[in-house]
Design a protein that fits this description.
Structural class: mainly alpha
Shape: globular
Strand order of the largest sheet: 1-2
Order of helices and strands: HHHHHEEHH
Strand content: under 5%
Number of helices: 7
Distance between the termini: 28 Å
Radius of gyration: 16 Å
Amino acid sequence: MYKDYILNSIVKEMKICRRLATKIPSDKLDYRSAEGTRSIGELLYYLSYIGTGIIRFWYRKDDSDMKTFFGALRAESPVITTAEEFVKAMDNQIELVTKLFGEITEDDLYHKQITYPWGETATVGEALLETTLKWMTAYKLQLFSLIKQASGEKLGTPDAWRLTELVS
């Protein structure tokens, strides 16, 4: 049950990101709120792989370090040039995270120890909340804010926290 709760929460965040992307005017992908910050397009690219990236890192079959692993992950992730490409990439993320959770047991959530790339340890359950779920939520909110700033789109608080409409 705990496993389903975590998975459903992650998938919900991914689906909200998908829907938010449909609100981006095509000429605003290069918008950034300040110099040195990610543009909307760069943020979409990051969101297109980060939801499963750390899970894949913990369950990898080799002994690659985080820098090497994520470098390869970024290289294999398609560059996002349109909102439609992002929606497709997020569909792939939803499918992949569901598959990855099929390999995680309830026992893993409570007992399997992982080591964060920065050296601390945690159980898989705690780590999923502290990384994947929090990262998806934080970057979703950044996307929400950038869309509002760049487009004048009439997005409200519910648009950031629940699926206010579905994307086909």
